[in-house]
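Notebook, p. 212. Picked up where the previous page left off. The plan for this session was modest: take the two constructs that came back from the sequencing core last week, fold each one, and keep the raw output in the notebook itself so nobody has to go hunting through shared drives later. Recording the first one now, exactly as returned: residue sequence, then the structure token string.
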Amino acid sequence: MSLNNKSLFANIKYDLPAGLVVSLVALPLCLGIALASTGRSDLLFSGVIAGIVGGIVVGSLSGSSLGVAGPAAGLVVIVLNALDTLGSFEAFLLAVVLAGALQIIAGFLKAGIIGYYFPSSVIKGMLAAIGITLILKEIPHAFGYDADFMGDEAFAQKDGRNTFTEVWYSFRYNSTGAIIISAISLAMLILFDKPFMKRIQLFRYIPGALFVVITGVILNLVFGAAAPQWVLSGEHMVQLPVASSAQEFFSFFKTPDFSAFNKPEVYTVAVTLAIVASLETLLSVEATDRLDPFKRTTPTNRELMAQGTGNMISGLLGGLPVTQVIVRSSANIDSGGRTRLSTIIHGTILLISAVFIAKYLNYIPLASLAAILLMVGYKLAKFELFKGMYKLGLEQFIPFVVTIIAILSTDLLKGIGIGMVVAIYFILKKNHKHSYHYIKEEHRDGDVITLLLSEEVTFLNKGSISATLDNLPDGATVVIDGSKSMNIDYDVLEIIQDFKKHQAPLRNISVETRGVGEVEAVGAH
């Protein structure tokens, strides 16, 4: 089934409820990341601005069908360090604008092709790791222990604790009201996931997450009347800034300090943001495309330009940098979103909420939203994924597991880097074995050994070919056949030529080459 040629509004019955759910999930994530990134409660709205821009602007320009952009937990440390380096939030906003311009340039230069070079085992490991991280990070919020901000993905927290100690503290310092709300919410989500529920007309297009949020609000109001000791308030609730006047609302927006153009540090921060935000976006694009039930492919260069435009506008309005975010994208898919309209709707709802109904959104308990994210995490890290990867063999399973462990114990980008190293090791190992065919033929005058080179012989094959030549028996007759090769790198040609001219005569080895060109030795005396 193809959705690409349909009208933007053709799937609104799916995209509207999905966009609503994603906006409810995204709101506390935007606020939590803003607080963690800036350390200032007066800049909470910078996260909401980034969420709005990520939904409306990036969603409109992107070619991603289901990806959702917004402020990312992976940039928290970079933003904090940048604020210390630059000395003001306004100077940092200028760096965000410049980072966006660099992303647009990268898109025009076709740098998005990098996104196609992440191994499948690493991407699947990333999805599983995010799922496990969501489960571990949302358990405290489900228990009513909200010391850490919602949306944190890093193992080591700012307060000196970590993912596992936070879970332990949640068992010790919990809230009965939160546990009741999250338990009922999870039960509802499991029920809504059953096939028979989809046969009921009312629930066919309305995701269970929407009912969960409404139920959480009602339960907390009931607690207020019947069991005041269970009531959730303060840090246990969504805390969207509420403006008492239009003037106060517009004061939430900041503008870049363009006088900071002469600071070299601004450009260093801009380049760092552009690189990290682009990498996180490309990783999320690859992961989201794998989760897409319609198996559509996102044009990565267009995505970089869309994200770059989003960052420029977010920076100009006083917002944090944006990237595509796998957690929100997964929630979008899980809620039944079909096209990028759901992303645009999510951004529009965030905007309407911030302007008109901020007061009422603050009635939503974090425990309800934690239950939704727990379900998203479970679906990302199902046991079937581990079982399927194991069946593919150790070359796929080991990088998959290493990526999971590395992300859980560090953060997303570091974990991906470690997983990539392990995956590349197995790729090189496989490449080492398949760079040529070794054929030994018996003849009356002695054995003839033929090395039939592969179609593509690159510098990656250098080690295996060199080792094979070194291990040839003295006095052998050798044919090195490159007649079927489309390309043989200079590095390999140099090794073959050196062996033929210098090493083989010393070992009485007769060498014949076919389709292997001569190269000029550089630096030889």
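Okay, moving on. Second construct, recorded in the same format:
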Amino acid sequence: MSSVPSLALVGRASELRTVIDVIARPPAVVLVEGEAGIGKTRLVRAALGHVPGDRAVLLGYCHQIREPFPYGPVFEALRDVGGRLPEPGTLNPVTGALAGYLPELAGALPPAPPPLNDPRAERHRVFRAIRALLAAVGPAVLVIEDLHWADDGTRDLLRFLIDQPPAGLALVITYRREDHGATRASLGRAYRHHPDTTSVVVPLVPLDVTDVGNLAGALLNRSDLSSGFVARLHDRTAGIPFVVEEVVRSLRDPGEPEALDRAGVPLLLREAMAERMASLSAAAVRTVQVAAVLRVPAGEQLIAAAGGDSAGLGEALRAGVLHEDSRGRYGFRHALAEQAVYDAIPGPERRSAHERVVGALAAMDSPPLVQLAFHARQAGDIEAWLRHGSAAAHRAAALGDTALAIEVVEGMLDDPDLPEPERGPLALKLSKFAGSGLSHQRVVRLLRHVLRDDFLSPDARAEARLHLGLLLSNQAGDTVGGRPEIKAAVEELTDQPTLAARGLACLAMPAWGTESLAQHTEWMARAEKLVASADNPEVAAAVLANRASLQMAIGAPDAFAVADTLPIADTRMAVRREAARGYANLYDSLITLGLYPEAEKIAREGRRLAAETGAEYSAYIVDVSAIRMEWLTGRWAGLRERAIAMSELVADTPQIAVDVWLVLGMLALATGEWEEAARHFHAAGLDAPDSRYAPVVDAAAGGLIELHLARGALDEAVAEAERAVARLRRKGVWVWGAYLAPSAVNALAWAGRTEEAAALVAEYAAGVADKISPAAHAALESARGALASAERRHAEAAAHFARAREAYAVIPQPYAAARAGEGEARAMLAVGDPGAATAFADVAERYGELGATHDAARCRRVLRDIGVEFQLPRGRRGRAAALSPRGKATALSQRETEVARLVALGRTNREIADVLFLSTRTVESHVATVLRKLGVRSRTEVAPPA
């Protein structure tokens, strides 16, 4: 075989310049994407050759067969930074949180801080510690290879570093494009690079014919390769650089097309690797084969225990067949080479090799269960495969890595050799794991397939139907399809009362379905009766969690007493996971009720439980509910962006996302973005109100009524009020009408239907009379104020609105307080109260502070109408906003910023005038000023203000 130099970097000049340029300007992010063998690693290594010597280069690797160890690739990269750290005592104290993860640096790190009670806070502290450690290292390039194999925790950590990068950090990430349908998917849907970070995606594509010829010429040190040879080589290798190299290395007489035919080298280099293996001794071949069977880089001891030896390992390393990584482990330079060697091992020998690997892994102090399951399956030991696979899934779930647990079980179900009797129990196991995670689409398909087959016993079939109904109703957001499955399962589970109790407890949750509260209460009583006589702590905890959730959802006086009985300290993981779900539901209901200090306490405990037990679904319920709480409590700065990011994270779980769409709708309503508001309200549940989450649907209906009233569409407002009130009345949970009731009363009263409005006020008052809901009681005062205003009882209206304003302020709900204050000011103006002007000015200021520009403009319009001068707050002038396509940052006044946002949304001058209560001529003047300041000629060049 010809002697050739190592692979030259051919055809990547532009990409190399890009990577070098970006990492030279930290903070920076480089995403290098492409298929296996395309040259991602080679490109990165070439770029690292241009990194100045004073910059640290840190390398971390993700592996195909992984055990549950979050952040492993990053910690791997950090183990070698000891020599670059400052003197002991000068590091940020938070870096002490890494001592347990980086024992190599224990002597250089500060003392470990005391543990936190909240695992999410603990995780955030670890993230901050890693960031602080990277900052202390100084200018650095952190390379993470093969992100497509990373765990979710590593992706979260990398997103954190990108969002808050140390000033000197350049982050370089490689991943396979075919494993991610979109660029953002490599880091998750919420990936947004920091505006001050240089960020670039570098996609690598196969080489064209010319570049393949150049690469082959460089490898063979020849410039006379025929066009026929180059064309044939390109055809055989598909232009994948690594395959080109291996094919060229295998040629005995390179240069002519016939040489390729004689070699018989397939596209993915099987024969090329065989040629290279043929030159090795038997000991080296055996060692290389062991490395191929292992599938992940391994240490010398494990390779020897599995059938290799040190001499053979040394020979394989010298021949370049195996390579040593930075952690002293040995493996192939590329997965394609590994697969080629593996496929060349005869079947019986492969099975024997996997058996030896199973024995070697099982002898380890902490056996890697995922690898054990894989090798047992390849060895043909079905019993051991099932045993290790189940244990691996349970361990992953116990460690909170629900995604890995699902991945393991799904892989077992995909195997055609899985014994039929095992298929049903595994499908049920999968559905249980999926019940606490976000992954559900494939599980739903599997369960439906299982139910179509005849191999399940009646009891197993009923359990499968129950889990299908639960997944459809919860993660999939399909209550219309899910609830009938649950109801059918309950009737079939006559011999399994605990499972029937679980199904009944789900049906008892009042926020779902069209049944009355009385029916939900009956289902809950049946569930509690069934579980009382059974010895199943997990199901008992599930039923108790739903009872607590039910009581809190309706604002029952005993809700907190029931919640206090949830088994949050139970030693069993499954029991605490049910408590985590209960706490997530409690948090959501407390937000609706307006009990925010209690909600914050429940949220902290719920996040801790969810993190401890791997209850990913429950954790996300808390996170999206927190978005709604931020809107209600007036924390609007950056809320739109946070809500959009969260919507992308939970895009596949529509039932979770409804809070986000509600918040986006309310924010759009407050700024006069009518079309956007309507679209978001429908996404929040008004598109199918009978099958969506009722509390959010009711709030979205209240928002849509307000939208119709703002646009002068009284008939549409009344129609929406009638539909929404009918749903609220049918369900009978009146505390959910805190945002709906005042709007519905307003619409009915101003349509002249004051008797119906008065009846609704009375009905609402009776429905919330004995409930623990500050929000509902404040809303009742607002509804009474709206009715009194419509009936021209203005003094009474002012008093009702004042009480509502004070109650909202205590909760606190500053936007609702401002709306009540506006009602009070209008009533004061109607009776000639001289304090009305001051009241309007105060409300306009409160709206402005929140960012409710349309509402603030409406109040300023009243002040203009009564001849009162009103100056925009000085503190809000001169906002810098990058609005033009040229990225020009220009200082705009508050009014100009409001106009610019509406221009960017495509609004006409007339529409902008309606939203901001200005004359069209005034808007024309503002638009001209905005265009002039931004240096653009067209409205279409204006982007939304930052």
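Notes on construct two before I forget. Confidence is low (pLDDT under 50) at residues 1-7, 178-185, 263-268, 874-889.
Flagging for discussion at group meeting.
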